[in-house]
TrEMBL record:
InterPro entries: ABC3_permease_C (IPR003838), FtsX (IPR004513), FtsX_actino (IPR047929), FtsX_ECD (IPR040690). It is a multi-pass membrane protein. Part of the ABC transporter FtsEX involved in cellular division. It comes from the Bacteria. The keyword Endoplasmic reticulum does not apply. This is Cell division protein FtsX.
Amino acid sequence: MRFGLIWSEVANGLRRNLSMVVSVVLVTFISLTFVGTAVLLQLQIGQMKTYWYDRAQVAVYMCTETDNCQGGAATEQTIAAVKKQLESPELSPYIQKFYFQDQQQGYEQFQQQFKGNQIADFVTPEMIPQTFWVNLKDPNNSAVLTETLSGAAGVQSVVDQRSYLDQIFSILNAASLTAIGIAVIMLVAAVLLIATTIRLSAFSRRREIGIMRLVGASNRFIQTPFIIEGVIAALIGSVLSCVVIALLVQFFVRDFLGNRIQSINFVSMEQAWLVIPVLIVIGVVLAAASANFAIKRYLKV
């Protein structure tokens, strides 16, 4: 096979269809950027679940004067009874540690958390419930505390913080699925655009293809320049998307978010480098497959 002739045909094809090639590059770039972002977001969600679920606490809220509890506000006796239950042989095997937070401590924490928010001006210490914060050895055993302490005298509610985390992660998962959906649509558009570009290129050179067939050129020899054209365009778009993903992780996620939200372990550059080759492979494979399919009809000239 004469590689010089093949590359000459590739250069001519790219030059003749420059605008379509640019379109393929842009569509591939955008679609694979969405794919990479969705994959990294899933990795981030997985890391956050592992970190926060292990640290999620169970909150045992005691009744206040503003709550509609049957026995009224929690007393020293009911608080001592709940503490005794937490230390009992039935519950202590499930508990790693627990501590008690009184109303003043809860109020100070609330004011710090909602500093600058108008709601902080309307809350008084009497409105904040006294709370037992419980760390479990296995967070999946939170139902044991809920069943044992719910309805106990002085207890307003027993809340597993993982329920709040589930809501947050469901939103993040929805965002990730949306990115995946957009990426799939864009990838389909990229495949169709690559196929259209190859067909236009083949149509403009149909006489040359006919002559090559008459002189005995093999299908492989005729197909190769067109496939390379599609792969080159998609490869450029893939590389651009990889550059954007790497810059996004390093400067936005690691440097910007990482320095401002130190309580979250964000995805690393090592994970980004694992995603980047996958994006390149996806772009090249889709381009080669769509170009190969598009050129087949012209091999019967």
